[in-house]
Amino acid sequence: MNASRFDLWLGLPLAAIALLLPFTGPSDFMLNLATLVMIWAVFAIGFDFVFGLLGMVSFGHASFLGLGGYALALATQMWGLPFCAGVSLAIVAGALCAWLFSFFALRVSGIFFALVTLALSQLLYILADSKLRAWTGGADGLPGVARPGLGGIDFFDSTLFYWYVLAVFALVMAAVVVLRRSPFGRVIAGIRQNETRAEQLGFDVHRYKQITFIVSGGISGLAGALLASLLMYVNPQMLHWTTSGDVIIMTLLGGAGTLWGPVIGVLAFEVLKEWLSGWTQYWYGILGLIFILATLFFPKGIVGELQERYGQWRDKAARRDGRIS
Amino acid sequence: MSTLIIGLSLGMLLFLLASGLTLIFGMLGVINFAHGALYMLGAYIAFDIGRHTGSFVAGLIGATVLVALAGALIERLALRPLYDRPHFYQLILTFGVILVISEVVKVVWGLGYQESTMPPALAGTVDMFGSTIPVYRLFVIGFGALVSGGLFLLIEKSTFGMLVRAASSDGEMVRLLGLPVASVRMAVFALGSGLAGLAGAIAAPLFPIELGMATNTIIDCFIVVILGGLGNIRGAVAASLLIGLVRAIGYSYMPSWVDILTFSLLIATLLTRPQGLFFRATRSA
Q: CB of B4 within 8 Å of any CB in chain A?
């Protein structure tokens, strides 16, 4: 199965839509929704590094997202740093937090990994909500988070901010493609398939897991900064464990471990949400039901199923042409 | 003294919840995220039955039975097809169940708080050891002790309990011996859910009934179940009483540190003794 050509076929129309959208005269609502989808997609991609590539369920990614948001808010408001420095700080904050978590969480595996990450992130949530109120504004959050300021461009304009996020999103996607194809990415895939084998082959499995976790945390921190900038607001809800649950739902819906799966998952989630909330206020429950059905019947997710069909179709075509006997 | 009583009653309530969760884990290997949501459902059902019939006991029984039925339904429809898949699918699926249950509660009872009233027979206070103690707290302790005693007898002495213990240590073997493992699993899930519903019904007069119960309570349950050792009911008793007392004492002396301390204890336990504080090598069930 030629996965990369599949990724290309899927990516091209998405890229075309993303590039053309601002020229179709969309409403501010549409643009903001598209921006939100891209930001959450960055988060889901970061999350999928641990979930899809490494095969570990983390319930702590809300921490990295939230810390990224707070890092940007504090850097620009309290310390008066420029936006770019704030975003860099957010990435560092997410990565640092992941590094700290990794000391605790990587000592255990399976369900215990999920529980330890859950406990650590809830601890952070409670701290942000109570003890660190001077920094985080407690349950009220911090309003007025900055937007980027590049060469006098007004990023409070939805269209311009959309281009900014699109550029960051494209950068992240490119980095992910490179990482997945690099020797490092191959080792990670090997660890997921068979951890003992990877270890016996001489790879420092713990170190590889730790680095993946840190990269994942850094990307999530970036997403947190962008999200705070879009909403111009951060609050502890970003750190709550249900946020980690949401990103799991989205990733699984789209297809964990595939390149475009997290992106499609976020897109499907947000579009379904907008569509459902248009005709019923109980959209979250219906979404939960759809999610349960998807887990039961399409465990590979939208992209995973498509990829499998595509592989079968290619094999059949190859056999028909006599390329494979 | 009253702090002690409050702590014990809180602990008993936690035990009712955690015993169901730990029973389900021991038997099915499933971490049920929706346990808190079932607890919430129990509280709402008990509140509604109590409002319409005026009977507290009817609320207790109704909540237990209905939530147990809901649990059986969840196991049969959603979990049973997933046992062969990696464990995280079950974990994630129960997260989806939370969303559905929360929405059902929103549809039926709305978004606001609900206040349940105490049954008049238990609403008073008594003077004990020089302090005034609400009768309801004593009732919670007594009732919790009764239920946990019954649960022990069921698991340790009855034929059903033997089947549960056998199936949790080697389900495949028990199935090959011709015993209905699938039904036992469903029964255990229903029993665990019923205990959550019962806990919800008992908690209803003590706390405001609200949607946040679903996601907040489950975290407390996890703490107890992990401290006690996943699947270990004896451990769950000790851990819930411990956490209940720590909570009660903590809230009266240093309220802002309670959560931070319990979470630190939890993380330390997960790292140093992942089998729980009260682990004994031979026990399962």
A: no
Residue A46 pLDDT more than 90?
yes
Q: Are B67 and B193 in contact (CB under 8 A)?
A: yes
Q: Other CB atoms closer than 10 Å to residue B169's CB: what's the count?
A: 12
Taking residues B68-87, report their average pLDDT: 88
Containing structural domain, residue A33: 3-240
DSSP conformation letters of A148-215 = --STT--TTSHHHHHHHHHHHHHHHHHHHHHHHHSHHHHHHHHHHH-HHHHHHTT--HHHHHHHHHHH
Chain B residues with CB under 8 Å of A296 CB are 78, 81-82, 93
| Cα A108–Cα A111–Cα A113 angle in degrees, nearest 5 | 40
Question: The tokens of B118 are what?
Answer: 């105490």
Among candidates B262, B187, B276, B189, which has minimal Cα distance to B234? Answer: B276
Q: pLDDT for B145-156, tens place per residue?
A: 999 889 888 888
Q: Rounded distance, CA A47 to CA A172, Å?
A: 13
Q: Do B106 and A282 touch (CB under 8 A)?
A: yes
What SS3 class is residue B275?
A: coil
- Residue B284 phi/psi, 5-degree rounding, is -145, 160
Question: Which region among A133-147, A193-207, A249-263 has the lowest average model confidence (pLDDT)?
Answer: A133-147
In a domain, A253, yes or no: no
pTM of the model: 0.85
Query: Could you report the per-residue pLDDT of A138-152, keeping only the tens digit for each?
Result: 777 788 777 776 666
Domain layout of chain B by residue ranges:
2-272
Round to whole Å and give the CA distance between B19 and B16.
Answer: 6
Q: B interface mutation test: which of A295, A297, A298 has the most B CBs within 10 A?
A: A295
Q: Does residue A277 lie in a domain region?
A: no
Q: Is B100 on the interface with A (CB under 8 A)?
A: yes
Structure confidence at residue B125 as a pLDDT band (50, 70, 90): confident
Crossing angle between the packed helical segments B87-109 and B213-228, to the nearest 10 degrees: 140
10 Å CB burial of residue A272 (0-12, 13-18, 19+) is: middle
Q: Give the separation between CA B45 and CA B39, rounded to whole angstroms.
A: 10
In a domain, A103, yes or no: yes
Is there a contact between A292 and B215 if contact means CB atoms under 8 Å apart?
no
Long-range CB contacts for residues A202-211, cutoff 8 Å, separation at least 24? A206/A106, A208/A184, A209/A54, A209/A56, A209/A102, A209/A106, A210/A99, A210/A102, A210/A106, A211/A184
pLDDT given at position A23: 86
Lowest-pLDDT range of A73-87, A139-153, B73-87, B199-213: A139-153
Those residues with Cβ within 8 angstroms of residue B240's Cβ, 6 or more apart along the chain or in another chain: B11, B12, B14, B15, B18, B224, B228
Inform me whether the pLDDT recorded for B283 exceeds 60.
no
The answer to whether position A51 is within a domain reads yes
**How many structural domains comprise chain A?**
1
Is B191 an interface residue toward A (CB < 8 Å)? Answer: no
Confidence check: pLDDT of A207 > 70: yes
The mean predicted confidence, pLDDT, of chain B is 84
SS3 B53: helix
Could B96 and A118 be called an inter-chain contact, meaning their C-beta atoms sit closer than 8 Å? no
B2-272 has CATH 1.20.58 classification: no
